[in-house]
Design a protein that fits this description.
3-stranded antiparallel β-sheet; two-stranded antiparallel sheet; 0% helix
Length: 52
């Protein structure tokens, strides 16, 4: 299946690989692990960032 990624960098949450947006891609289709991409700007903050 081919999907369109909006402009900007996307990160595969399972592997950490980055993909450039603004184009169509064909992500790997694995039955035991669905493809999950997130915007690179939404990186997780370490737990220490929430400490008082």
């Amino acid at each position: 299946m081919t999907v369109y990624l909006p402009e900007g960098e996307r990160i595969d949450v399972w592997t950490g690989h980055s993909l450039d947006g603004g184009r169509e891609v064909t992500p790997p289709a694995e039955l035991d692990r669905p493809t999950v991409l997130r915007a690179a700007a939404h990186r997780r903050r370490p737990a220490s960032a929430f400490a008082d």
